[in-house]
């Protein structure tokens, strides 16, 4: 597949510019993995890492293998916020955890933190705390601080990046490019 210039059907003409190489992602993921093990030093306190579908699936899969301690993992799906539902205050967790979080350290794993609205309006963090998680933390591969609308406390972050729309390593543009092993910037082409 040549990703350098592509025009996918029904999508505006665009190309993918390489941004973060696979080897740099690997390097950073292994650093974060060790950082997480240090942050949860008590082996007898269970650690549950929770990926948010679908974007975090690739990152979570690599990350759990980079944490040198016992971990459990699971996934949740949250509805993407839309302007019409944003103020409704409903809990929109579409796929919940399979097991109880009571007494466990829970680390929510996200591909990218942008406005922060997904985490805020899904009430995921509050929800986990109310279910008696021992602690609730957040780990993101990428952070776009310039775009933040609501404050979210992050314990582990891979890379802070400028306001680019990125794809690859789990992240998509219209469901495409999730399987790239590097992270690229979507550049829209003049027509
Ligand atoms: P937030 O709610 O604005 O923080 O956005 C979080 C979610 O939006 C992420 O988990 C992604 O699914 C998606 N997202 C935000 N920025 C990007 C991007 O640059 N590329 C792909 N997906 C993104
Ligand atoms: Mg996501």
Number of helices: 4
Q: What is bound: which ligands?
A: inosinic acid, magnesium ion
Major sheet summary line: 6 strands, mixed
Percent range of helical residues: 10-25%
Average pLDDT works out at 91
CATH class: Alpha Beta
How many β-strand stretches? 9
Level-2 CATH architecture? 3-Layer(aba) Sandwich
Question: What integer value in Å does the Rg equal?
Answer: 17 Å
Which stretches are poorly predicted, pLDDT < 50 over at least 5 residues?
A: 83-87
Instruction: Identify the strand order in the major beta sheet.
Output: 4-3-2-5-6-7
Strand content: 25-35%
Describe this structure in words.
- The protein has about 190 residues and is an alpha/beta fold.
- The protein has 4 helices and 9 strands, in the order E-H-E-H-E-E-E-H-H-E-E-E-E.
- It has a single domain, classed as Rossmann fold, CATH 3.40.50.
- A 6-stranded mixed beta sheet has the order 4-3-2-5-6-7.
- Helix 1 crosses helix 2.
- The protein starts with 13 loop residues before the first strand and ends with a strand.
- About 30% of the residues are buried.
- Bound molecules: inosinic acid (IMP) and magnesium ion.
- Inosinic acid (IMP) binds next to strand 5, helix 3 and strand 8.
- Magnesium ion binds next to strand 5.
């Amino acid at each position: 597949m040549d990703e350098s210039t592509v025009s996918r059907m029904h999508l505006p003409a665009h190309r993918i510019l390489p941004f973060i190489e696979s080897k740099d992602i690997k390097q950073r993921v292994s650093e974060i993995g060790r950082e997480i093990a240090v942050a949860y030093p008590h082996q007898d306190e269970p650690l549950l890492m929770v990926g948010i579908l679908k974007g975090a699936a690739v990152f979570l899969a690599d990350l759990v293998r980079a944490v040198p301690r016992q971990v459990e993992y699971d996934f949740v799906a949250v509805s993407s916020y839309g302007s019409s539902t944003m103020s409704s205050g409903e809990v929109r967790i579409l796929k919940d955890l399979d097991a109880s979080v009571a007494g466990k350290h829970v680390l929510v794993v996200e591909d990218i933190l942008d406005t922060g609205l997904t985490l805020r309006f899904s009430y995921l963090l509050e929800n986990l705390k109310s279910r008696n998680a021992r602690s609730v933390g957040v780990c993101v591969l990428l952070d776009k601080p310039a775009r933040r609308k609501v404050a979210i406390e992050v314990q582990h972050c891979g890379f802070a990046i400028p306001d680019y729309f990125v794809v690859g390593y789990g992240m998509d543009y219209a469901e495409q490019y999730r399987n790239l092993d590097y992270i690229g910037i979507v550049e829209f082409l003049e027509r």
